[in-house]
Write a structure and sequence with these properties.
By secondary structure, the chain is of the alpha/beta class. Helix content is 29%, strand content 20%. Helix 4 links the parallel strand 9 (130-131) and strand 10 (161-165).
């Protein structure tokens, strides 16, 4: 049996579980032999083989021990030294990306980006809108900058162009600005930004609430069958990188109902924790929305469960609300601190109302000042209703400050962190300066401060392979800017827990998944190599299984 030195306690449960012969029950449905099984249990026990029955882990141990569970109908897989881990999870994933917009995910230079837009414009009728996908970031470009109005004018002078960048920003060319009547005199909405070139002319960038000045033509939603088929393909892509569970961070009630229908038909292959997105300006509006939805807090099962309500208080990379101003020139003479999307008073009222109605709250907060706003609202709610123990969350939490950690602990908050820095490091350095950018996201600090933190991607804002998340948090390497924040590195064991046991704790499922132990759900991934020995970015996913059923095989 392959056990880490000193793992006698872990060996006890292994041997106890293996003390029964097949005669005490039916044989295993599936057995995996001759590999390295990282159980990610409390002691990070390592074994050789795994047995599965009725969608659950039956036993973990040596090849000899697990062979006892093989019966006439047992499927047996020889791993040949490959590594098995619990199924990987993503705490904040919108979708795998893609769609019918111009795909910029693979461009690496500004010329490549503009050429892709020009190609689409050439195939678009005169006056037709050229729209891009959102799954890219300027940090992937050699130039590490945004395409602005004049760049886009050269690529497509005769078409309105809207470049979608993440979930917080549009960049328009001159035709698009004119189409929606946006000029120097256009008032800047509260919680938004309309940026300019040094000469004062608009550069086409619209941030956060300023995006509402643009009314994009609605994309045909498709009928239910088309939407289900698209979701099946989305999950298939995510299974191919090892994901077995994910948390949708702010979807619509219609999307939730579609997932319910997929489950009813037996077509849901991903375990989903679903946060409902709420855009409400008052407690009264929040009450109305909840009544319209007719959904109960925590309803669902191990396949699909409501996980809470998603709120927002600040912007993204370019609009995180900070205590100290942005670096120059982004700081506008030291006067730009980021964007407050929702004012403090209505936010407090909405949070309190959700708490009174029994809802768990998850709030997007990037900057330290935004985290201050969230903590104040959560503390006020905690004076009326239980919050500690309910696992309310801060989504992202890029730049917490040490004085906030005791408040987080008192509320028993969880932080849903992602590897944004991997892609966005050059931009964050421009916005906030090197010192602040290097702390994003301070997982080492969170763990050392006793703050529960899990891992994810925020896909399609950042690419979705979970092995990239592990690679980034272990090395702090970025896609184009070298290493940022070496002092925030975590161990491989800690990084793997972020995507397994920590995620399960976030969603109140630590007794059912996140580790490979008898009685746990048989969600697992087969990797080409052991991530303790090979860098995660050099490892491929060979197989993914959910409930013992293979959903991806390379």
């Amino acid at each position: 049996m392959l056990l880490r030195p000193g793992a006698a306690a872990a060996a006890a449960w292994l041997l106890g579980a293996l003390g029964c012969a097949p005669t005490s029950g039916p044989p295993a449905d599936l057995v995996l032999l001759s590999g390295t099984v990282l159980t990610v249990d409390r002691d990070f026990t390592v074994a050789e083989a795994l047995a599965i029955r009725d969608g659950e882990v039956l036993a973990v141990g040596s090849d000899a021990e697990i062979r006892r569970f093989i019966g006439p109908a047992t499927e047996t897989i020889e791993l040949g030294g490959r590594t098995v881990t619990p199924g990987l999870s993503d705490n904040h994933l919108h979708s795998a990306g893609g769609g019918d917009g111009v795909d910029l995910s693979r461009v690496r230079t500004m010329d490549d980006l503009l050429a892709a837009i020009a190609e689409r414009a050439a195939a678009t009728p005169p006056g037709g809108i050229v729209l891009t996908n959102s799954d890219w970031h300027e940090g992937q470009l050699v130039e590490a900058r945004l395409p602005l109005r004049r760049d886009l004018d050269e690529a497509a002078p005769d078409h309105p162009v809207v470049v979608v960048r993440g979930g917080h920003e549009y960049i328009l060319n001159s035709r698009a600005l004119a189409k929606w009547g946006i000029d120097r005199a256009t008032p800047v909405p509260d919680g938004g930004r309309i940026t300019r070139y040094p000469d004062g002319s608009l550069n086409g960038e619209l941030v956060d609430t300023a995006k509402r000045l643009v009314e994009l033509p609605p994309r045909p939603p498709g009928d239910l069958e088309q939407r289900i088929a698209a979701q099946v393909e989305d999950y298939r892509a995510l299974h191919a990188v090892g994901l077995t569970s994910l948390r949708h961070p702010g979807g619509s009630i219609e999307q939730y109902r579609m997932l319910q229908e997929m489950q009813r038909r037996g077509r849901l292959t991903m375990r989903v924790n679903f946060l409902l997105r709420m855009r409400a300006g008052s407690a009264e509006a929040a009450r109305t929305r909840l009544d319209e939805w007719g959904v109960a807090p925590d309803e669902g099962d191990e396949w699909l469960r409501i996980g809470g309500i998603k709120l927002m208080v600040d912007g993204g990379f370019e609009g995180g609300l900070l205590r100290e101003p942005y670096a120059e020139p982004w700081g506008q003479g030291g006067e730009f601190f980021g964007l407050r999307i929702v004012a403090e008073e209505p936010f407090h009222e909405i949070v309190a109302e959700l708490g009174r109605r029994g809802w768990r709250v998850a709030t997007h907060a990037v900057g330290d000042a935004a985290i201050d706003q969230v903590l104040a609202a959560y503390e006020a709610a905690a004076s009326e209703v239980p919050v500690a123990g309910q696992r309310w969350t801060i989504e992202h939490g890029f730049l917490p400050q040490p004085d906030q950690y005791p408040r987080m602990r008192a509320l028993d908050l969880h932080v849903a962190a992602q590897h944004h820095l991997y892609l966005a490091a050059p931009s964050l350095e421009k916005y906030w300066g090197r010192e602040r950018a290097a702390r994003v996201t301070p997982v080492r600090e969170y763990l050392d401060a006793g703050i529960p933190v899990s891992g994810g991607t925020d896909s399609p804002v950042v690419p979705y392979p979970p092995l990239w998340v592990i690679h980034h948090f272990v090395t702090r390497e970025t896609i184009s800017a070298g290493v940022f924040g070496e002092d925030q590195r975590v161990s491989l064991e800690e990084a793997l827990r972020l995507l397994t046991t920590a995620y399960a704790q976030l969603t109140f499922e630590e007794d059912r998944k996140g580790s490979l132990q008898p009685g746990m759900l048989a969600d697992f991934v087969v990797l080409s190599a052991d991530p303790r020995e090979v860098s995660a970015d050099e490892i491929s996913v060979e197989m993914t299984a959910v409930g013992g059923e293979v959903v991806y095989r390379r």
